[in-house]
From TrEMBL, chain A:
<keyword id="KW-0539">Nucleus</keyword>
<dbReference type="Pfam" id="PF04719">
    <property type="entry name" value="TAFII28"/>
</dbReference>
<dbReference type="GO" id="GO:0046982">
    <property type="term" value="F:protein heterodimerization activity"/>
</dbReference>
<feature type="compositionally biased region" description="Acidic residues">
    <location>
        <begin position="59"/>
        <end position="68"/>
    </location>
</feature>
<keyword id="KW-0805">Transcription regulation</keyword>
<keyword id="KW-0804">Transcription</keyword>
<comment type="function">
    <text>TAFs are components of the transcription factor IID (TFIID) complex that is essential for mediating regulation of RNA polymerase transcription.</text>
</comment>
<dbReference type="GO" id="GO:0051123">
    <property type="term" value="P:RNA polymerase II preinitiation complex assembly"/>
</dbReference>
<feature type="domain" description="TAFII28-like protein">
    <location>
        <begin position="118"/>
        <end position="202"/>
    </location>
</feature>
From TrEMBL, chain B:
<protein>
    <recommendedName>
        <fullName>Transcription initiation factor TFIID subunit 13</fullName>
    </recommendedName>
</protein>
<keyword id="KW-0805">Transcription regulation</keyword>
<dbReference type="GO" id="GO:0046982">
    <property type="term" value="F:protein heterodimerization activity"/>
</dbReference>
<dbReference type="GO" id="GO:0006366">
    <property type="term" value="P:transcription by RNA polymerase II"/>
</dbReference>
<comment type="similarity">
    <text>Belongs to the TAF13 family.</text>
</comment>
<feature type="region of interest" description="Disordered">
    <location>
        <begin position="1"/>
        <end position="38"/>
    </location>
</feature>
<keyword id="KW-0804">Transcription</keyword>
<dbReference type="Pfam" id="PF02269">
    <property type="entry name" value="TFIID-18kDa"/>
</dbReference>
<feature type="compositionally biased region" description="Gly residues">
    <location>
        <begin position="12"/>
        <end position="21"/>
    </location>
</feature>
Amino acid sequence: MGSDADLTDSESEGGFVQAEVSTPVAGPSPSGKGKGPAKPAGGNKSSRKVILREPSPTNDEEGDDEGDAKENDGHGPSGRAVAKGSAGKDDEEEEEENMDHEELGKYQTVDPDKMRAVLATFTPEQMSRYECYRRSGFQRANMRRLLQSVSGGPVSVPMTIVISGIAKMFVGELVEMGRIVMTERNDTGPIRPTHLREAYRRLKLEGKVPQRNRPRLFR
Amino acid sequence: MVGMTPAANSEGGPGGGGAGKGKANAAQQATDGSLKRKRGLFNKDLRLMMYGFGDDPDPMPETVHLMEDILIDYITDTVHKSQNVASRRGKLTTEDVMFLVRKDSRKFARVKELLAMNEELKRARKAFDLDEEKLATEF
């Protein structure tokens, strides 16, 4: 599955990670799933005021389709990109932007024109990765089941949304730190558990991982 | 007890594969009410997510499994900690989680954004339904 550029993946990694840093992005799909690692709140796109008041069936359907089509993405990260790639990058961009326009009227910490300019310079591989980054999320049912078994009581819908968002950001931190560890060790290819463990250890030192017990200083 | 349910058999099954049997068994488990940790609870989602964040398009199954373990620990610890600071007895609110995440500015901003967006979507859907009703009555 996926791209043909596996060997050059590590190179595009660097490029992509940098692009990620410079282009804050936050809009999730209409289902409100949490997405996006480090980005400051908000949204990306233009000053076009949100058309939430008017009934816009096409926009809503489009949004619902994309929200529900998340399951289809399981066919492979490149699956959806390939399907859309034929339509051209611009259509995909616009579709994503429409999706964000209707939700993120107020949250604009990113200049949408700059965002569009950066998106236009993406290679297809970067675009598919970016798309996966935006669209991926945890299944609400699974998350709710997990939360209920942990907390022992009913869990509200906003709670699942919030926890899913936080969890996704945590995954992002781990993967990014794992890549940093990999480059330090001059490794290539997929991230291995050893990198992940080292990344987890470093995140613990930074304090980004909740610790259960109080630190035992002198045993 | 562990050997009884079909869900547990998937744990004893071919290891290392991380097969996504989670979903089918999850339906059976739903009636059970308890969550026995099946492999691959978030397999599909996690693979896409890791690719999006910079991993290989095809992440290693061991890595995905380890990531899921870490993630479930993270969620569990976060929920337990927020239960400790919970304002309402026995009920977890989003404010508790926000209190926990306050130190991490990115996550905090993200949480606020998600909640606000949720509100907006709810309002939008309500407005959409109202407009639909209006249109329906007009005809």
